[in-house]
Amino acid sequence: MIFSAVGDGRPYPEHGTSAAGWSAVPPRQVRLADLTTTRRTLDLAALLAEDSTFYGDLFAHVVAWRGRLYLEDGLHRAVRAALHQRQVLHARVLELSG
């Protein structure tokens, strides 16, 4: 299995982090096997697009909450990494207390 689990929604509280807030979080490597997705479906066009990160953040957004890592944004990046047989993804990890 690629991910730890496939979720449907965000189980953590709303964090209200803006794009500027995310850009202040330094990226780090995260193992794909440690991630729980927050979406069950993937937009195939986003996965196959050559410029899929052109207008957005280059790094996936992950929320750490209650000992789990939730992939909030960047599912297409994570799947693309898995298709290239990579086990890690560069992501910004936002730590939430709770």
UniProtKB/TrEMBL annotation:
It comes from the Bacteria. Residues 1-20 are annotated as: Disordered. It comes from Kineococcus gynurae. InterPro entries: VapB-like_prob (IPR014447). Pfam families: VapB. This is Type II toxin-antitoxin system VapB family antitoxin.
